Amino acid sequence: MKPNDLKIECIGPKNKGGQHAGLPKMDVKITHVPTGMIAQCGFERSQLKNKTIAMAMLEFGLLEIGWVD
Predict the structure, then answer these.
(1) Helical spans, DSSP H, in 1-69
(2) Burial class (CB in 10 A: 0-12, 13-18, 19+), 39
């Protein structure tokens, strides 16, 4: 997978205010631009862990469809 084929976005909390105000953006959404495949993860409280899981999900999805760089 080429790094310039990926679009990585960090997504913040969906609700506004209260105890969730000012929380860092922890969810990660990775899009493989050539195929349009998207992997999103927000299971962990760490952005780095979420990015690692989303990358693994995306790699598995690309293997499933037989994508070869």
Answers:
(1) 47-65
(2) buried
Q: Return the structure tokens found at 43.
A: 């299971």
CA 47 to chain centre: 9
Question: What backbone torsions phi and psi does residue 45 show, to the nearest 5 degrees?
Answer: -85, -5
Q: What domains are there in the chain, each with its CATH number? A: 3-65 (3.30.160.20)
31-65 pLDDT, tens digit each: 999 999 999 998 888 899 999 999 999 999 999 99
Query: Is residue 33 classed as helix, strand or coil in its secondary structure?
Result: coil
Cβ distance 42 to 57 under 8 Å? no
